[in-house]
Structure to design on (365 residues):
């Protein structure tokens, strides 16, 4: 924490949310857009801090994108900034959806093609994002000591198990009800 | 009274919607379609719209609110779906941020990382399936292009999304 780092103003934060709220076509991309804005471009948070926020936002119920923006907002600019940020994130899409519901032309090829391209690009971005998160699986509570190989392997297996269970069609609640206690027991037993 | 009922439907759904709208589609359908507030066709149309627009895919709820009760319905749906999660994250922040320096809290967070990444990996895999549709060659081409540009250039995520859009449109026109 010795290096001073940039601190966003409320206006900065609203601009980030408005950009994502207006342009984030391709649903897989949205978490990556926040990482891009908050970590990679502006350095408001470190990689590890972002991973930490992501864990909290993703594990609590609620739409993960809204959770993520709300939590980042509270952390970076406080309550009012966070709520305004959510409005900037959610209002453009909601207004556009309502406007389009009168003139639904979504089945036209020239509308479909760019949307599909963005969907595919978003998935690639999400996969690269996950790749960047993998080193974080080797962290321990003490920044100076990395986790042992055994702990890394166990965490990797847990990750694959959760992904496999979702793809096999198990209910999300059942998966979390098993995976959360298993993860905790493994962490404190190893 | 109708508005209050509408608010309640979206509020409780917002609080339990893990990930996004997908996990609560059955509940929304039960409350809205079976409840006679919107036709099955209207529901599907709202769902498609919610997937297409930028921002959270919960945008479908605002569309449904609009169709049920006009601007007031849209406002009530919007507030209903988002107010719960925003308040909850405020509480989570207040609690977690105070305790995060404690070693065992930090270890809990580290222990949950694989679970979170596993959920995201699964959603990437299942989205890949639907996004490619029947145009596998085009999908692979666009994916490789975006992947290479992401690795070799300094283009940001948003620029790469639009590269994908242009590449798919061009590819579809040429192939």
């Amino acid at each position: 924490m010795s290096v001073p780092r940039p601190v966003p103003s409320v206006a900065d934060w609203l601009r980030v949310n408005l950009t994502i709220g207006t342009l984030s076509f391709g649903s897989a991309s949205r978490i990556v857009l926040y990482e891009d804005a908050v970590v990679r471009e502006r350095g408001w948070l470190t990689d590890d801090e972002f991973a930490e926020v992501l864990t909290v936002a993703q594990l609590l119920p609620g739409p993960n994108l809204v959770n993520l923006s709300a939590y980042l907002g509270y952390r970076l600019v406080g309550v009012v900034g966070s709520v305004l940020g959510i409005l900037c994130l959610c209002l453009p899409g909601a207004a556009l959806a309502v406007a389009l519901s009168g003139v639904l032309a979504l089945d036209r090829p020239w509308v479909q093609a760019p949307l599909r391209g963005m969907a595919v690009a978003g998935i690639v971005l999400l996969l690269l994002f996950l790749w960047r998160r993998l080193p974080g699986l080797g962290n321990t509570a003490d920044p100076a000591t990395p986790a042992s190989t055994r702990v890394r392997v166990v965490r990797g297996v847990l990750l694959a198990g959760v992904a496999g269970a979702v793809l096999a069609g198990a209910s999300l609640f059942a998966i979390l009800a098993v995976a959360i206690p298993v993860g905790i027991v493994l962490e404190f037993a190893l | 009274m109708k508005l209050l009922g509408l608010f309640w439907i979206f509020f409780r759904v917002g609080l339990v919607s893990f990930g996004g709208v997908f996990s609560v589609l059955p509940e929304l359908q039960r409350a809205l379609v079976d409840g006679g507030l919107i036709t099955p066709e209207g529901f599907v149309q709202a769902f498609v719209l919610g997937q297409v627009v930028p921002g959270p895919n919960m945008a479908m709820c605002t569309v449904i609110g609009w169709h049920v009760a006009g601007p007031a319905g849209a406002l009530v749906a919007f507030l209903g779906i988002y107010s719960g999660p925003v308040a909850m994250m405020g509480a989570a922040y207040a609690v977690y941020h105070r305790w995060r320096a404690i070693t065992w809290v930090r270890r809990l967070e580290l222990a949950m990382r694989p679970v979170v990444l596993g959920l995201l990996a699964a959603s990437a895999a299942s989205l890949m399936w639907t996004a490619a549709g029947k145009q596998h060659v085009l999908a692979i081409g666009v994916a490789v292009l975006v992947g290479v540009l992401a690795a070799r250039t300094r283009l940001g995520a948003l620029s790469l999304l639009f590269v994908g859009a242009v590449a798919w449109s061009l590819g579809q026109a040429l192939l």
Observations:
- DSSP finds seven helices and no strands in chain A.
- Residues 138 and 148 of chain A are 8 Å apart (CA to CA).
- Chain A touches chain B through 104 residues (CB under 8 Å).
